[in-house]
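Reviewers asked in the last cycle whether our approach scales beyond single polypeptides. To address this, we selected a multi-component target totalling 318 residues and predicted its structure end to end. The input consisted of the following lines:
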Amino acid sequence: MAIELHPLHQFEIQRLVPLHIGGLDVSYTNSALLMTIAVGLITALTVLSTRKAALVPGRWQSLAEMSYEFVADMIDTNAGHGARAFFPFVFTLFMFILFSNLLGLIPYSFTVTSHIIVTFALAAVVFIGVTIVGFVRHGAHFLRLFVPEGVPAVLLLLLVPIELLSYFIRPFTLSIRLFANMLAGHTMLAIFGGFAASVGVFAIFPLGINILLVGLELLVAALQAYVFAILTCLYLRDALHLH
Amino acid sequence: MDLASAKMIGAGLACIALVGAGIGIGNVFSALINSVARNPASQAQVQPFAFLGFALAEATGLFGLAIAFLILFVF
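The resulting structure, written as structure tokens, was:
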């Protein structure tokens, strides 16, 4: 092949403003820059568009209201009642992941959520938060979550470890799902881009595939944010209502 | 066998995981078409679950694909 492929080059973290405090490397990186942009855009969308709130919303206000209602509806249908208190948390998670995913689709930008440490931090916050909510709401009774009702005692010996395992594996599946989707999608785009660069006139075919793939990636970007948020809602329902 | 060819074979084997994702996604959407064809009024209720199932099924295949990419380009 004429051209060397570097499909993973796009995931490299570069220090934009090198900064060292003590032994810690707290440089301002391209990852941090994209996070700042995402947070800035979300804040602008939700604050600026509702500053002059009208009874008949304009385009921007309509967008902000639609995202609000989408998440509120998702919480009501999936997390049961009494979960509205967690709306700010789920809304923040959803919007942050959605904007990071969509910003990552801009050519030559950086996908924050394609790094396992970022998605794992988000999933760990969800996991620890949900566990704390469960213990605060139910006390030691929360452990009933791991003991299915109406099951013979012999089967419990088998079922309780399975329930425990499936509970503790949640942060890993939650984070790896988002990370693997972003990593695989963007690597695939880069690989087909590399094909297009190396085959001359026939570049039209990999380019066509790439255009279709960008469409798929747009769907995946929105869908993965939705899946992350909806699974957070389902975990919250477990903690609030114990099955 | 040298390392380079072992990597290629390993990456190819890791892509077998996508078989499962293909079957899963096909199942999800065939079930969606079935249920909407039987009861068109239910479309609004079942469609979000179909897309949730699509995303979950696709993710399992992408775990394998991510491993293939890691084998090829990282190690």
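The longest strand of chain A covers residues 15-17. We regard this as preliminary and will revisit it once experimental data from Aim 1 are available.
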